[in-house]
Design a protein that fits this description.
The chain has 5 helices and 13 strands. With about 270 residues, it is of the alpha+beta class. A hairpin with a 2-residue loop joins β1 (about 30-40) and β2. The radius of gyration is 26 Å and the shape is globular. Residues about 100-110 have low confidence and may be disordered.
Length: about 270
């Protein structure tokens, strides 16, 4: 009888504590992020779309560079080498698959038999590393995306660049400089632009991308890396949010303590019996 009472009390206590943990997780907090996209249309056409949240720390912090493993999520895009004699690839599309959906949904197309079908393009959830560089002498900030899935397609890296020379001109045709941009007008701020994901997101720096460089294996089969760089045609950035569960560490420790005690008492009663 004592064992039954003990087990009942323990079960009720664990249930109450787990309830508190679940309630804490549901409360959570909202985290800001950036959704960025852009494209260029020169000899090698490039377009991209991605999301960035401050979920990782700089794994190798240095004053003018950073590295954020798997920081880029939901990357999709396309790389089309119109020249045909630069890169090993001719066309690379980072999409997953196509599925048929109901006619009232998006993307209509005609099937081979002439019947009207509806398809939905499902983006592949590609995650990429983000390497950042401040080239103060060249007056550039680079956000360099790379990962094995891109490399497997012949693309070694994609660099999204803020180049002071391409910031545009004012109404009097004076060229803008970093000093004209509040988030980049000091050296300390430019260092934050490569060392802090929060700073990149809060100041919508992905919206200042004005040059795209794509690097990949050469078409001559030598294995060497070639590059194509040009100004963007258009770029967009949008502030987005996601909800992060917030677990109460005290509750979690309490649960572990109670479970440990219960298992110990169970063993004790088993020995006595």
């Amino acid at each position: 009888m004592k064992l039954i009472k003990l087990m009942t009390v323990t079960a009720l206590t664990v249930g109450a504590v787990f309830g508190a943990v679940v309630e804490s997780a549901e409360a959570g907090f909202t985290q800001n992020g950036s959704s960025g996209s852009g494209w260029r249309t020169d000899g090698t056409e490039v377009d991209y779309s991605l999301t960035l949240f401050p979920t990782v720390e700089d794994s190798n912090p240095q004053p003018r560079r950073g590295f954020f493993k798997n920081a880029i999520t939901n990357f999709t895009g396309g790389f089309d080498d119109f020249t045909g004699d630069g890169f090993e690839f001719d066309l690379v599309e980072v999409f997953k698959s196509i599925k048929a959906v109901r006619p009232d949904e998006i993307g209509r197309a005609t099937d081979s038999d002439g019947s009207l079908k509806t398809y939905e393009f499902i983006p592949e959830a590609i995650t990429l590393n983000l390497r950042t560089r401040l080239l103060e002498r060249d007056r550039k900030i680079e956000y360099i995306l790379s990962g094995q899935k891109l490399r497997n397609k012949g693309i070694t890296e994609l660099a999204l660049i803020i180049d002071e020379r391409n910031l545009g001109v004012d109404e009097d045709f004076n060229f803008f400089k970093f000093s004209d941009i509040s988030s980049l007008n000091t050296f300390e701020k430019r260092k934050q632009a490569v060392n802090s994901l929060d700073y990149i997101i809060d100041n919508a720096l992905l919206g200042l991308i004005n040059n795209i460089r794509v690097s990949g294996f050469s078409s001559d089969g030598s294995g060497k890396i070639v590059q194509s760089s040009d100004v963007v045609s258009q770029v967009y950035v949008e502030l987005i949010t996601q909800k992060i569960p917030e677990y109460d560490s005290k509750n979690c420790l309490l649960v572990l303590g109670i479970l440990g005690t219960a298992l110990g008492l169970k063993r004790r009663f088993q020995i006595k019996s």
